[in-house]
Specification:
two-stranded antiparallel sheet, seven-stranded mixed β-barrel
Length: 142
């Protein structure tokens, strides 16, 4: 059974982040804070309104960002094939490029949550697989 952790738990680090325009499009992307421990190409879990999705961390000249959240790891690596749940979340919550959001780092490098400032969130934390098992699964996934 997964543990449940509130965004207010001392083990969760909350960062102020911003939604920005993704390139020349009007779609939002999530600009990650510089303090976040993430690398270009990482696939992480991103919780949006209680639903867990997968997101690929990208980088550009201004830093790290997430362009979308998808239903599985494969779609996160090939974003043109699936629905972008980050765009849906932003529209549902009235967040547009230029607005601030709260990014909760629940498990560094693995699990993050995105929420509207002031809104409460509780995350289900499952045990992360051993590194060697995760590497094998990633190789099979590719």
């Amino acid at each position: 059974m997964p543990d449940r952790v509130s965004h207010e738990n001392p083990s969760v680090t909350t960062y102020r982040a911003r939604l920005e325009r993704s390139g020349g499009t009007r779609r939002p992307c999530l600009r990650l804070p510089d303090e976040l421990d993430a690398e270009d190409g990482d696939i992480v879990r991103l919780v949006l309104d209680g639903d867990e999705h997968h997101a690929k961390i990208d980088s550009d000249a201004r830093g790290m960002l997430i362009r979308g959240a998808y239903d599985n790891r494969r779609l996160a690596r090939t974003p043109g094939e699936g629905e972008n749940r980050l765009v849906e979340w932003a529209e549902t919550n009235g967040r547009t490029p230029g607005t601030s959001v709260e990014l909760d780092e629940v498990e560094p490098g693995h699990l993050y949550g995105l929420r509207v400032p002031g809104k409460r969130a509780v995350y289900s934390v499952t045990r992360q697989p051993k590194s060697s098992l995760a590497d094998i699964a990633q190789q099979l996934d590719e």
